[in-house]
Specification:
Elements: E1 3-7, H1 16-32, E2 41-45, H2 51-56, H3 69-74, E3 86-87, E4 94-96, H4 101-110, H5 120-126, E5 134-138, H6 145-152, E6 156-162, H7 165-169, H8 172-184, E7 190-197, H9 205-216, H10 229-236, H11 241-244, H12 260-279
Parallel strand pairs: 1-5, 1-6, 2-4, 2-5, 6-7
Antiparallel strand pairs: 3-4
Helix pairs in contact: 1-12
The structure holds adenosine-5'-triphosphate and magnesium ion.
Adenosine-5'-triphosphate (ATP) binds at residues 12-18, 47, 51, 141, 197-198, 225, 227-228, 231-232, 235.
Length: 280
């Protein structure tokens, strides 16, 4: 059975996609270090913009709607997801489902009119559970059926929080959505943690905001991700941080390099792996 983590926050530009891409790539690298494990990771991009897929499958992330995630969400019965899987550019054990930008926009519009509209992704991914160790799902910056599907399919949620006053106070709607999903579909849905992102040490209020986050969500705040131009450059080069800033010589299982962003996302990967080991 795969462990499914959804990266969500209805606020835009808080680092959801950056987190989804780097967590998925880091997990693939870590699992790939042990050739006996045969560990595989799947990245699912529920954002019609497809930004996460640009980093793992540039120029091959779109497919005709009937052969993409769109069909898994909208067709009855849905096609087989196995045949859709594509291998990521930089990691042999990282896979993704191709998307279709216009088709996903249309799917977001039509899902509310379809039966079982909240559980369609979960059902499609059920057929892939045995093939993957981890499934990482990126989500769009708004409430709607695409987000709800991503939550219904998840074991737990990672919530990137931009460390500003607005970022900390703007989580009510997401919490309400998570409560609704628990009440109606998935009582076991957990929050893996709140991930402070885009942290700027030089800003005087940074520490104050971290303290406020800790106060609101005791023991649920993950080690922060600082603002780093490496992350932005990696994404515009269609790469994850571990590919963009690799260590000089990679010893098996080693993810991080001299780039602080790679060290910080490597730490998140370790925490997810540790939680997975505890679950087994
Ligand atoms: N820690 C960071 N340091 C510097 N730049 C970052 C960091 N995290 C994300 N970015 C950049 O900030 C922008 C927004 O990040 P990202 O796309 O990950 O956010 P998002 O929450 O997925 O946005 P959206 O809601 O639009 O999907 C991107 O240009 C990304 O490269
Ligand atoms: Mg995004």
């Amino acid at each position: 059975m795969a462990i499914t983590l959804t990266i969500a926050n209805e606020k835009g530009g808080v680092g959801k996609t950056t987190t989804a891409v780097n967590l998925a790539a880091g997990l693939a690298l870590a699992l790939g270090a042990d050739p006996t494990s045969g560990g595989r990771v799947l990245l699912v991009d529920m954002d019609p913009q497809g930004h996460a897929l640009l980093a793992v499958g540039y120029e091959q992330w779109q497919a005709p709607a009937p052969q993409s995630l769109v069909a898994l969400l909208t067709e009855t019965p849905p096609p087989s997801p196995q045949r859709m899987l594509r291998q990521a550019s930089h990691h042999a054990n990282l896979f993704f489902l191709p998307s279709n930008r216009d088709g996903m926009v249309e799917a977001a519009r039509t899902l509310p009119t379809l039966m079982a509209n909240e559980t369609r992704l979960a059902r499609a991914l059920a057929g892939l559970q045995k093939d993957f160790d981890f499934i990482i799902i990126d989500t769009p910056p708004n409430t709607g059926d695409l987000l709800v599907n991503a939550l219904v399919a998840a074991d737990s949620v990672i919530i990137p929080v931009e460390t500003s006053y607005l970022g900390v106070s703007g989580l009510r709607e997401l919490q309400r959505t998570i409560e609704q999903v628990r009440a109606h579909f998935r009582p076991q849905l957990g929050v893996f943690g709140y991930l402070p992102t885009l942290v700027e040490e030089v800003r005087a209020e940074a520490q104050e905001i971290m303290t406020e986050l800790e106060k609101r969500y005791p023991r649920q705040v993950l080690p922060p991700i600082h603002k780093s131009s490496d992350l932005a450059y990696a994404h515009s080069s269609h790469m994850d941080i571990f590919t963009y800033r690799p260590p000089r010589q990679r010893s098996p299982g080693q993810l991080s390099s001299s780039s602080r962003a790679s060290q910080e996302y490597a730490r998140l990967v370790e925490l997810v792996l540790a939680a997975a080991r505890r679950k087994k």
